[in-house]
TrEMBL record:
This is Asparaginase. SMART domains: Asparaginase. Pfam families: Asparaginase (PF00710), Asparaginase_C (PF17763). Residues 217-308 form the Asparaginase/glutaminase C-terminal domain. It comes from Pelomonas dachongensis.
Amino acid sequence: MQTLEPLIVILGTGGTIAGTARSSCDGVGYTAAQLRVDDLLAAVPALAGRRLEAHQVAQLDSKDMDIATWQRLAIAVDEQLARPEVAGVVVTHGTDTLEETAYFLHRVLAPNKPVVLTAAMRPATALVPDGPQNLFDAVQVAAKPGAAGVVVAFAGRVHDATQVRKAHSYRVDAFESADGALVARVEEGAVRLLGRWPAGEALGLARIAAPAGSWPRVDIVMNHAGADGRIVRALLAAGVDGIVAAGTGNGTLGVDLEHALREAESRGVRIVRSTRCDAGPVMDLPGLLPSAGVLSPVKTRIELILALLAR
Ligand code: ASP
């Protein structure tokens, strides 16, 4: 009896990987989210004949990612993973908020099958597009026996959802893992494991079921030279449930900004300190506002929203 090769499902959400420009030399003035996920697959002849299924979940520039799309995507990924014949899921996405979607899916689903997000820095019409290679690599990762959890496959590297961040605005290898901790590399289609597949405890879809419009409001405020409490006071006036303070260094805050944040905290707003540094933890010290550990400000924001949704 012939054993079927593993089925991989590709979910499309848009991004530059699905973007088009008028000229093949235009790598910046393109429009994201123009091609369908089937078109992306058709551009990778090496995937022809593979056991794949493709579905379009959204079609947007990921700078415009929103809660409703996250909800739809999490449900779609969960449904696909629940099918016994599905070995893994690939999500095509934009690079701008890729790390946020990856972290969101990781916290909500913590899947024991691989969910591999991928993207591109160049539109599909570029002279040398990077999307087809990234999509090919992502499928290899999703089909790798033993692979599990939410990862990002990009430019030959496989990043953990908790570590990954977009670190460059233009370079084709735009993503880095904090402290360099890669999960794997993809070389000529072979996945070479370097670390561990991400694992965690799933919060579950029930946590994110509330209508998008009723989700807690969490904003990010940065410390910088001359920062004061003005933005925090404006947020308080507008209504806010949580504030992530992207502090300097070890999450340090200017005196006026900290004063305003403590005022907000005393009025019931949840405050968490992260750092505007590219990597490294924010250490908790007695008497300081709560720390986000190693999470970047945007991931801290997701963590805080998910925590507030449990109230
Ligand atoms: N603005 C685009 C997006 O995030 C950038 C990209 O895909 O690289 O969808």
